[in-house]
Write a structure and sequence with these properties.
single chain; 349 residues; mainly beta; eight-stranded mixed sheet; 26 strands; globular; disordered N terminus; disordered C terminus
Length: 349
């Protein structure tokens, strides 16, 4: 039970918590994350809800704001009843919802997301579709524009044939597509996303890959950039071999990866996240590990930093081995309950 801050909750994470009752702030909730919560009752803010995330929530009842809902995320919710705003719905996300009935706006739908919805009835606008997302649709036939496709998303589509532009693909998303052949641009791919793609071979750009995302990809071979990889995300990847950059890896995320071998950067790893990783072997940075997070990791072997595990916080229900060798050499963890709050972290060094 948390009497959350009344103002900022900016980037508040709660992972794998069975029960949560929060008097949420009435203003900002900007990037409030709750993952794998069984039951949640929230008197949500009536104004901003900008980037409100809910993942794998069984039941959710929310008095949602009637105006902005800008980046409202709900993931894997069985039943959802929302008096949705009739105007903006700019980045409205619903993931894996069985039934959805929405009086959708007839104009903007700029970032309208629907993920794995069995039945959908939408009086869609006939003009803007600039950021129209459709997830887990069996068949889609679209006379797509040959120019902009800047943020065109199609998720879990069995067959897709698109005469894609050869230039912009800046935010081109394709999720859970069986086969994809794209003459991708050789320059920008700045936010190129592929989700649950069986096979992908990409002559990726050699420079930027700043936010290159791969979700649930069986096999991936990438001649990754040697410099930036600042926000390189891999979600539920079976096998990954990366000649990772030797410098920045500032926000390198790995989610539900079975095996990972990384010649990690030797300097920063400031926000290195690992989620539900079975086995991890890391030649970790020797200095900072300032915000090193591990969630539900079975086995972890880390040549940890030798100086400052500043906000390394673990809630352990059972720890078989926990010993220090200059910082932390070996941790065998069976269940981790982690609460990463906005208040100052405890220095465990």
């Amino acid at each position: 039970m948390i009497d959350a801050c009344q103002a900022s909750l900016h980037h508040y994470f709660i992972f794998s918590i069975d029960y949560v009752l929060i008097g949420a702030c009435k203003e900002d909730l900007h990037h409030y994350f709750i993952f794998s919560v069984d039951y949640v009752l929230i008197d949500a803010c009536q104004e901003d809800l900008h980037h409100y995330f809910f993942f794998s929530v069984d039941y959710v009842l929310i008095g949602t704001c009637q105006e902005d809902l800008h980046h409202y995320f709900i993931f894997s919710v069985d039943y959802v009843l929302i008096g949705a705003c009739k105007e903006d719905l700019h980045h409205y996300f619903i993931f894996s919802v069985d039934y959805v009935l929405i009086g959708a706006c007839k104009e903007d739908l700029h970032h309208y997301f629907i993920f794995s919805v069995d039945y959908v009835l939408i009086g869609a606008c006939k003009e803007d579709l600039h950021h129209y997302f459709i997830f887990s649709v069996d068949y889609v036939l679209i006379g797509t524009c040959q120019e902009d496709l800047h943020h065109y998303f199609i998720f879990s589509v069995d067959y897709v044939l698109i005469g894609t532009c050869q230039e912009d693909l800046h935010h081109y998303f394709i999720f859970s597509v069986d086969y994809v052949l794209i003459g991708a641009c050789k320059e920008d791919l700045h936010h190129y996303f592929f989700f649950s793609v069986d096979y992908v071979l990409i002559d990726a750009c050699k420079e930027d890959l700043h936010h290159y995302f791969f979700f649930s990809v069986d096999y991936v071979l990438i001649d990754a950039c040697k410099e930036d990889l600042h926000h390189y995300f891999f979600f539920s990847v079976d096998y990954v071999l990366i000649d990772a950059c030797q410098e920045d890896l500032h926000h390198y995320f790995f989610f539900s990866v079975d095996y990972v071998l990384i010649d990690a950067c030797q300097e920063d790893l400031h926000h290195y996240f690992f989620f539900s990783v079975d086995y991890v072997l890391i030649d970790a940075c020797q200095e900072d590990l300032h915000h090193y997070f591990f969630f539900s990791v079975d086995y972890v072997l880390i040549d940890a930093c030798q100086e400052e595990l500043h906000p390394f916080i673990l809630w352990l229900s059972e720890v078989e081995t926990f010993r220090f060798v200059q910082c932390i050499h070996l941790i065998k963890i069976f269940t981790i309950k982690i609460l990463i709050t906005s208040f100052p972290f405890v220095n465990l060094s």
